[in-house]
Design a protein that fits this description.
Layout lengths: L20 H10 L5 E5 L4 H6 L3 E6 L5 E5 L2
Antiparallel strand pairs: 1-3, 2-3
Length: 71
């Protein structure tokens, strides 16, 4: 991906999950109109797939799944 949105980390504390905060943050990022590449950590892969990300079926050097979203 030549141009994409880059962020360092997005974590929602467990006691604030399931309130829509992660989805709202991703919606804001998607509104920028650029592809988004994520490294799924802490069992977040299903969340990203539910948000329309595609699993690249590869892992980073730490063994975490890599997913992308394209506008």
């Amino acid at each position: 991906i030549a141009s994409c949105l880059v962020g360092s980390e997005m974590c929602i504390r467990a006691d604030f999950q399931d309130r829509g905060y992660g989805t709202s943050l991703l919606d804001f990022a998607k509104d920028q109109g650029l592809p988004i590449k994520v490294i799924a950590r802490n069992q977040s892969k299903d969340f990203f797939i539910k948000q329309g990300f595609t699993d690249l079926e590869e892992t980073n050097r730490d063994g975490h799944d890599v997913l992308v979203w394209t506008p």
